[in-house]
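hiii, so i know i said id send this last week but things got crazy w the move. better late than never?? heres the sequnce for the chain we talked about at the cafe, plus the structure i predicted for it. fair warning i was half asleep when i ran it
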Amino acid sequence: MRDKTRSKKHRCQVCGLYGETHIHHIFGGRWRVISERMDFTIELCPSCHEKAHNDAEFSEALKHDCQLEYLETHSLSEWMNLMHRNWVGMSEIRKKTFSRNNPVLGPFDDEEGY
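okay and structure toks below
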């Protein structure tokens, strides 16, 4: 879903609209610096950007999708060390297929605490 390059394509990565776009930090507030450093950003049209700030369900979906993307190449323990919060259900994590060299669960292989 997200384009990992920082150069703007002037196309909303949610609705596909071409034109004016904004770079939205998926994790704001105390996580904004991490969003910037880790490129947890998404290019959005003004309408979707407003929705990302004003629609909690939409914002949570962006966080969820970003975490799932991160877990394609990192473990859940790495995510938890970085963000200290989980936006993805353990059953959903277990359903994904990951590289044998990088198991997603690592030491966090049960649902306690998440």
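btw Residues 97-114 have pLDDT under 50 and may be disordered. thought thatd interest u
miss u guys!!
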